[in-house]
Amino acid sequence: MERSGFPWLTIREKPDLWRYQPYFVDPSDAEGSKTLVRTPEGDELEVTDPELTQRFGDGVRVMKVYSGIFDTFPLSFLTVQSVEGLSNLVGQALLPLRFRPNILIDASEAAPYPEDGWQGAILRIGGLRCRLDKRDQRCAIVNVDPLDPASANPGVLRAIAKERGAYFGMYGSAVEPGPISVGDAVTLET
Description:
M1 Pyruvate Kinase, Domain 3; 2 domains; six-stranded mixed sheet; three-stranded antiparallel sheet; 9 strands; 15% helix
């Protein structure tokens, strides 16, 4: 397996990784629960089991992580309107989950891709103030629907690349951390 300089093994390097399904034995206690991984063959192995590591190949170490892991920035923003706009380009109804945003915003603008104009802006969402730092450059992971990984559609990334220069959504970071909830108002600070 060829490795990039990226420190995490993803489906970019191992396309069948989606077939490994991790889960907590006790979902109500994520910190204390054992984490098991169901393999494509149906075996259930603890996440730290050396056999699981062997299945992933040389140089891979499997571990349980107690904090978020992200490619570039800690927050990923996307609007409902952008998902609808891309769905129209692809000719398929796409779910926001496919793009794995941390924060999905239903913007007041009706036109698709409103977040493109928010780069550098500060948003207030509930108790959080965050800055939208840069556009989110997408990779092949967006072709995979996490609810139905077997039905990957390479047309999703092709549409993003052709029509959007490979960018879709925004990356951001917290300016003032604070709690947020579903339904909180989103305010663009000037």
